Amino acid sequence: MKILVTGKEGQVARCLADRAKDHPKLELIFVAREGTDTVLDLADPDTIRAAVAAHKPDVILNAAAYTAVDQAEDEPDLAMAVNGTAPGILAAEAAKIGAKIIHISTDYVFDGDLDRPYLPSDPVNPIGVYGKTKLAGEEAVRAANPDHVIARTAWVYSPYGKNFYKTMLRLAETKDEISVVDDQIGNPTSAYEIADGLLAICDDWEKGGSKRLGETIHLVGPDAMTWCGFARKIFAESKASGGPSCHVNAISTADYPTKAKRPANSRLEQPA
Ligand SMILES: NC(=O)C1=CN([C@@H]2O[C@H](COP(=O)(O)OP(=O)(O)OC[C@H]3O[C@@H](n4cnc5c(N)ncnc54)[C@H](OP(=O)(O)O)[C@@H]3O)[C@@H](O)[C@H]2O)C=CC1
Ligand SMILES: Cc1cn([C@H]2C[C@H](O)[C@@H](COP(=O)(O)OP(=O)(O)O[C@H]3O[C@@H](C)C(=O)[C@@H](O)[C@H]3O)O2)c(=O)[nH]c1=O
């Protein structure tokens, strides 16, 4: 089964590439906005149509996105083109050739006001530009192709790209203490967990199954914690293996002003 993966250099895409060898019946083709034989720029619909026509995949896995949460507040049009409009074009192009689409979304589609983990069926209400654009992408995918899976994940970390885990370890190289917000809670998620979850769905489809088809699912790590708790965990593990570590002060969101508002409660849960 041929799977066209967007965003070749992203965290999830790179973990998909690492895991591909465990799924010999899945042929993963990675494209990016530059540097690949077939270029796919989500901000340029013509390149989307051309890439899908060139590869005629059975599944499109959209792992690319505009993920700079604060920067999105200053570039809402570009963020909307990439996160909101392009997924609909990918989904429509997939539908035209009878292909399925897996689209990755985020906890930031929720406002964070609920006092329990969010279920896929809970009402959405994003509070920042990034979340609004990701919600538009979800809606566009649902409208364009019934053969979709929308997998919402959260707080992604991996050895690749930019993420909170790597930021903490980098800061610890030069600082004795750092201050991290202790009033935003969520589920840190390894990009490998996401890759494994999505490839398990593809394996099922390859065998003729219909696992999760038409569903919006939550695919996150098992443990919820605050960003401060996550930082402390990162340093505890790092210290145990002889890596950098530093003291973490717990602060409130009000003490760490950022351009974009983030949900206080980002916990996601998938019903059994
Ligand atoms: N990171 C996180 O904490 C979370 C991520 N998600 C979602 O998970 C998915 C994967 O995220 P993650 O792997 O962390 O993302 P990354 O930020 O690691 O990578 C995003 C990729 O998207 C590519 N990209 C950006 N703009 C375009 C464009 N116009 N055309 C083509 N490619 C583009 C980037 O390309 P380039 O290398 O050229 O910059 C990059 O390779 C996304 O849908 C994201 O919204 C959901 C929840 C949490
Ligand atoms: C670096 C740093 C951040 N923070 C705070 C800011 C913010 O509230 C929180 C997380 O910071 P970041 O900017 O690294 O994370 P952020 O970019 O908000 O992460 C989000 O990315 C997008 C793509 C998603 O979809 C989300 O699930 C989520 O993972 O930690 C501190 O309190 N101290 C620090 O030293």
From TrEMBL:
Alphabetical UniProt keywords: NADP, Oxidoreductase
Keyword Oxidoreductase: yes
EC number, UniProt record: 1.1.1.133
Keyword Oxidoreductase: yes
Catalytic reactions on record: dTDP-beta-L-rhamnose + NADP(+) = dTDP-4-dehydro-beta-L-rhamnose + NADPH + H(+)
Location of the RmlD-like substrate binding domain: 1-269
Record GO terms (molecular function): dTDP-4-dehydrorhamnose reductase activity
SUPFAM superfamilies registered for this protein in UniProt: NAD(P)-binding Rossmann-fold domains
Cofactor note: Binds 1 Mg(2+) ion per monomer.
Function: Catalyzes the reduction of dTDP-6-deoxy-L-lyxo-4-hexulose to yield dTDP-L-rhamnose.
Protein name: dTDP-4-dehydrorhamnose reductase
Organism expressing this protein natively: Roseibium suaedae
Taxonomic lineage from the root: Bacteria, Pseudomonadati, Pseudomonadota, Alphaproteobacteria, Hyphomicrobiales
